[in-house]
From TrEMBL:
Record flagged with keyword Ion transport: no
Protein name as annotated: NHL repeat-containing protein 2
Subcellular location: Cytoplasm, Cytosol
Gene that specifies this protein: NHLRC2
All copies of domain Thioredoxin, residue ranges: 38-191
GO cellular component terms given for this protein: cytosol
Record function comment: Required for normal embryonic development.
NHL repeats by residue range: 519-557
Organism: Eudyptula minor
């Protein structure tokens, strides 16, 4: 390779860029690129890309790919990216469009060269998750040590390098926003080398990683929040491009959008989102940061309608704003939270927006009002509140002079002495505050003092600048304890911050990316948690454990990570409305054989609103197998106490006896008696492996309940274990 890496392209390509600025017609531009290629192709010595190491790990391919053997005869676009980088994410639609226009049969191949910024991003499993999350369908190589990056002297993310069919470097494009040039350079390069007979139409062995995965109720959930009543959760099921509203036991009340991405307002059944992230709920209204559509959406649960309230559906570059919401271009909103203007008469009259794409915090005026250090604003206006738009870790008394680096999480502490927004500033690995009195932006924990150093990350408990985080994506305020919780995403931990002392400590997670449930906080594990929320009474925390595709429930009083929330589809279980239980629902439940044993369980003391999680573990006789075609099921009854069944999931399938079935049950908030008996029953059909005989067997577990008014804890687990005997 000629010395200087990409610098060797600079003189000739700079001349081309200036000439293109003066060109008036598409034909002139094409001719200029064509002449440039003739000049580059006739050089005595190609600027050649070195071969990738044989030991590198590849995704979306059948095996390792050689740039000079397998891709000989192809025009190759190398995308140097790191999956945390919002600018890299902004480039993906351009690459998707190019892939749609040209295939490997046409002679084009895109190769993602993952060159990590954070240590966590060097791990192949984490890159796999990102490839799935962002629907990357071209080959990706994990260049964990950034070998090719250094060889070519790449200087920033993202950088595109376009290669000719000999592995010869032809163009480089630095940063985002070059779609027109990318298409122009690529299409003319394909044409130029096809005319010379140097393009091959052979297929490259593509094997998409996503095709090997089993279905999951949630896919990369990014954020979770809970309404003020404490009864409903709202989940951004980001990978399924939908919003779920569930009861606290996981039973789905509303599914809005999904499973495919799109951009459409309308009724719940026809609405579409694209990788939604942040959500804010009040009464029956939900606001959504529809991230990859560059929109803010409004969900009305009463009307069952979705509308757009900010953004125009394409990525904006405006860093000031001030237009009416639906006319104002915005860029990759990542989180939203309600707040109050300083002059408004209504509560929650502002929607604060973490605008990751422009490294700012914006405001959408839900009513007319005034922001700190601002003038009166009309209802519906959407504008920048804090952040210059430069990607920095800069604190300043003037909010417009401060700098953020991909703010991704927001939480409000409206009470004195705080009266501020907390900001998870992911790329500076800090948590910052914005005063809602005067707009001053201050440091809380993480990072370092140099505002231009965005590499001051780590995993260190401590105070202020001595604490270190790694790409935090979420924050939530605990009003009861006056503490802030942080989703320290790339450290796979939940941290707790005392804003008074500026002290930051690990609350939960070991730092290992895995999935350990049902243990103390110190032993529990996560995988890139992206969002979190605390219920109003401060007892339960819900964590969007993004790469584990789960919502985890943490009891802040007992310090137990109690469960992964089961997501129950309404069609998968028999769910009465929040009305007296319908009698036909009960009569439709299966009847157990008279021989079915009835297991009496010890009495359980519970409180109204508490969740019981029944863990059903059934064992078949030796040499027996479950008849999977038969209606194997569990169901719940409560004779003389049908008020217990209000709003419950009364039955569900048993698909596999080799693992336990989780049956969630939430006690109603209002109770009609202090004692009750709940029955959990199961009906199985199984066959002896040695004969054609098939048996129906049943089991009933009677659970006496003592309903107390004192608080016993938010979640209790009860094991239901039984072994069926041979006849």
């Amino acid at each position: 390779m000629a010395a200087g890496g990409l610098a060797g392209l600079l003189p000739a390509q700079t001349q081309l860029e200036y000439a293109l600025l003066d060109a008036d017609t598409p034909q002139e531009k094409e001719n200029l690129v064509y002449q440039y290629l003739k000049k580059m192709d006739s050089r005595e010595r190609d600027l050649t890309v070195p071969e990738l190491g044989r030991d590198l790990q590849w995704l979306n391919t059948e095996g390792p790919i050689s740039l000079h053997k397998d891709l000989c005869g192809k025009v190759v676009v190398l995308d140097f990216f790191t999956y945390c980088c919002i600018n890299c994410l902004h480039l993906l639609p351009d690459l998707h469009a190019l892939e749609h226009q040209y295939s490997d049969k046409d002679g084009l191949i895109i190769v993602g060269v993952h060159s990590a910024k954070f240590p966590n991003e060097k791990v192949l499993d984490n890159i796999k998750s990102a490839v799935l999350r962002y629907n990357i369908v071209h080959p990706v190589v994990n260049d964990a040590d950034a070998t090719l990056w250094h060889e070519l002297e790449v200087s920033c993310w993202p950088t595109l390098v376009i290669l000719g069919p000999r592995g010869n470097m032809l163009f480089s494009l630095v940063g985002e926003g070059h779609r027109e040039k990318l298409v122009l350079f690529t299409s003319i390069t394909l044409k130029f080398y096809k005319e010379r007979g140097q393009i091959k139409d052979n297929n490259i062995g593509i094997k998409l990683y996503r095709d090997s995965l089993p279905p999951s109720p949630l896919l990369f959930p990014g954020k979770v929040t809970i309404d003020n009543s404490g009864e409903r959760l709202v989940i951004a099921d980001t990978g399924h491009h939908r919003i779920l509203v569930t009861q606290k036991n996981g039973q789905i009340l509303h599914t809005i959008g999904g499973p495919n991405s799109g951009r459409r307002d309308g009724r719940f059944s026809e609405a579409a989102f694209n990788s939604p992230q942040g959500i804010a709920v009040k009464n029956n209204v939900i606001y959504v940061a529809d991230t990859e559509n560059h929109l803010i959406r409004k969900i009305d649960l009463e009307l069952e309608m979705v509308t757009t309230v900010a953004g125009i559906g394409i990525q904006g570059v405006d860093k000031e704003g001030g237009a009416k919401g639906e006319e104002q271009p915005i860029s990759s909103p990542w989180d939203v939270v309600f707040g109050n203007s300083i002059s408004g008469t209504q509560e929650d009259d502002v929607l604060w927006i973490a605008m990751a794409g422009t490294h700012q915090v914006w405001a959408l005026m839900l009513e007319g009002g005034k922001l700190p250090k601002g003038s009166d604003l009309k209802k519906g206006v959407c504008l920048r509140f804090a952040g210059s738009g430069n990607e920095e870790n800069r604190n300043n008394a003037y909010p417009h002079k401060a700098g953020f680096a991909q703010p991704s999480g927001l939480s409000l502490a409206s009470e004195e002495p705080w009266n501020c927004l907390f900001v998870a500033d992911s790329e500076s690995s800090t948590v910052r505050t914005i005063s809602l009195k005067d707009g001053a932006v201050k440091h809380l924990v993480g990072g370092e003092r140099d505002p231009l150093n965005l590499f001051a990350f780590g995993d260190v408990d401590g105070a202020g600048i001595n604490a270190k985080l790694q790409h935090p994506l979420g924050v939530t305020w605990d009003k009861r304890r006056k503490l802030l919780y942080v989703a320290d995403s790339y450290n796979h931990k939940i941290k707790v911050v005392d804003p008074k002392m500026k002290n930051c400590a690990t609350l939960a997670g070991t730092g290992e990316a895995s999935n350990v449930i049902g243990s103390s906080f110190s032993q529990s594990t996560f995988n890139e948690p992206g969002g979190l929320c605390v219920e109003e009474n401060g007892r339960l925390m819900y964590v969007a454990d993004t790469n584990n595709h789960q919502i985890k429930v943490l009891d802040l009083d007992t310090k137990i990570l109690s469960m992964a929330l089961p997501i129950l589809n309404p069609e998968a279980c028999d769910v009465p409305d929040n009305l007296p239980v319908q009698k036909d629902k009960i009569t439709n439940l299966p009847k157990l054989p008279k021989s079915a044993p009835n297991v009496q369980l010890p009495s359980l003391t519970v409180t109204p609103g508490q969740t019981i999680q029944f863990l059903l573990k059934l064992t078949l006789p030796p040499d027996s197998k479950l008849n999977e075609e038969a209606p194997n099921s569990w169901f719940i009854t409560a004779e003389d106490n049908t008020w217990l069944l209000q709003g419950q999931c009364l039955s569900g399938e048993i698909k596999d006896v080799s693992c336990q079935t989780i049956i969630p049950f939430q006690l109603p908030r209002s109770h009609l008696s202090a004692e009750a008996i709940l029955a959990v029953k199961a009906c199985l059909y199984y066959c002896s492996k040695g004969s054609s005989a098939c048996m129906m067997k049943g089991i009933s577990f009677s659970q006496p309940l003592q309903i107390a008014s004192t608080n016993q804890g938010s979640l209790t687990q009860v094991e239901l274990i039984h072994t069926f005997l041979t006849n």
